[in-house]
């Protein structure tokens, strides 16, 4: 009959989200709720602010500063080097197979971390690593005598670059692909040089993507534990190592303080990821 309402059919596609929702609740939401609750409790279960106040102590504050400094340095160098590499792959006129090989390698290397990565760097750039020995015996150059030390702050930053740089390549390449030839042609028709095009058109368009990638790299480095621990042990008290010592250690055992440390990490990493999402949404406007 005219005007009769057609019954709405059930949309069973929502069932496909149930496995994701289940795992997100089980391994993300519930653990965060547990950490937040534990951060405001004593070992006896009483409410307290002492755990959060303890985060302002000199040792823990220094640990946060070390983690932030290491994350900023590795994210900065990873973002700059990854941007230059991506530019060469996308806009440098290289053969297509070179881009495919680098993107494939980046997908593997960006997930290569922890103990295997630490062992690879020790075997390569350690005091008896293959590169160190070759430079000493073949070229007569003592790498460690010149001041390099893999087990130092800058050695850690160099190790982080192994997974930071490929991650930058993976996430900035689509942004470079989004640069339209019409923009360059319009700039050239108006008399702009190649440098002016990049300074006044391309870089402003890419800026949200570059800053967003930098924040993502920062968050990625901030939560790294296994690589630091395997490479330097407890020599560098970054926040994840202090958290591990509070939750699993025999001397500094204080799980509730560990929960407060984890809460601080969640807030810092969460803030970085939120800014990344905001900047990514602004960058996607240019690709529409």
UniProtKB/TrEMBL annotation:
<feature type="transmembrane region" description="Helical">
    <location>
        <begin position="226"/>
        <end position="247"/>
    </location>
</feature>
<feature type="transmembrane region" description="Helical">
    <location>
        <begin position="12"/>
        <end position="34"/>
    </location>
</feature>
<dbReference type="InterPro" id="IPR035906">
    <property type="entry name" value="MetI-like_sf"/>
</dbReference>
<keyword id="KW-0813">Transport</keyword>
<keyword id="KW-0812">Transmembrane</keyword>
<protein>
    <submittedName>
        <fullName>Acriflavin resistance protein</fullName>
    </submittedName>
</protein>
<dbReference type="GO" id="GO:0055085">
    <property type="term" value="P:transmembrane transport"/>
</dbReference>
<keyword id="KW-0472">Membrane</keyword>
<feature type="transmembrane region" description="Helical">
    <location>
        <begin position="46"/>
        <end position="66"/>
    </location>
</feature>
<feature type="transmembrane region" description="Helical">
    <location>
        <begin position="141"/>
        <end position="163"/>
    </location>
</feature>
<feature type="domain" description="ABC transmembrane type-1">
    <location>
        <begin position="64"/>
        <end position="278"/>
    </location>
</feature>
<feature type="transmembrane region" description="Helical">
    <location>
        <begin position="259"/>
        <end position="279"/>
    </location>
</feature>
<dbReference type="Pfam" id="PF00528">
    <property type="entry name" value="BPD_transp_1"/>
</dbReference>
<feature type="transmembrane region" description="Helical">
    <location>
        <begin position="73"/>
        <end position="94"/>
    </location>
</feature>
<dbReference type="GO" id="GO:0005886">
    <property type="term" value="C:plasma membrane"/>
</dbReference>
<feature type="transmembrane region" description="Helical">
    <location>
        <begin position="197"/>
        <end position="219"/>
    </location>
</feature>
<keyword id="KW-1133">Transmembrane helix</keyword>
<comment type="similarity">
    <text>Belongs to the binding-protein-dependent transport system permease family. CysTW subfamily.</text>
</comment>
<feature type="transmembrane region" description="Helical">
    <location>
        <begin position="114"/>
        <end position="134"/>
    </location>
</feature>
<dbReference type="InterPro" id="IPR000515">
    <property type="entry name" value="MetI-like"/>
</dbReference>
<keyword id="KW-1003">Cell membrane</keyword>
């Amino acid at each position: 009959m005219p005007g009769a309402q057609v019954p709405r059919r059930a949309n069973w596609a929502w069932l496909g989200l149930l496995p994701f929702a289940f795992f997100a609740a089980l391994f993300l939401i519930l653990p965060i709720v547990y950490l937040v609750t534990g951060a405001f409790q004593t070992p006896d279960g009483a409410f307290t602010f002492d755990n959060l106040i303890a985060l302002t102590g000199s040792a823990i504050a220094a640990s946060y500063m070390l983690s932030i400094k290491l994350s900023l340095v590795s994210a900065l160098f990873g973002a700059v080097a990854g941007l230059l590499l991506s530019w060469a792959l996308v806009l440098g006129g290289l053969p297509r197979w070179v881009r495919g090989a680098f993107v494939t390698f980046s997908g593997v290397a960006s997930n290569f971390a922890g103990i295997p990565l630490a062992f690879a760097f020790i075997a390569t750039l350690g005091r008896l690593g293959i590169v160190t020995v070759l430079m000493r015996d073949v070229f007569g150059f003592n790498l460690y005598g010149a001041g390099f030390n893999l087990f130092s702050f800058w050695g850690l930053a160099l190790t982080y670059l192994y997974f930071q740089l490929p991650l930058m390549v993976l996430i900035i390449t689509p942004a470079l692909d989004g640069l339209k030839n019409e923009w360059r042609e319009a700039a050239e028709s108006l008399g702009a040089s190649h440098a002016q095009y990049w300074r006044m058109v391309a870089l402003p368009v890419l800026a949200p993507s570059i800053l967003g990638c930098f924040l993502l790299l920062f968050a990625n480095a901030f939560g790294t534990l296994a690589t630091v621990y395997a490479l330097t042990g407890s020599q560098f008290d970054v926040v994840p190592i202090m958290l591990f010592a509070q939750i699993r250690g025999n001397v500094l055992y204080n799980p509730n303080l560990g929960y407060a440390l984890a809460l601080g990490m969640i807030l810092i990493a969460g803030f970085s990821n939120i800014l990344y999402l905001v900047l990514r949404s602004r960058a996607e406007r240019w690709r529409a």
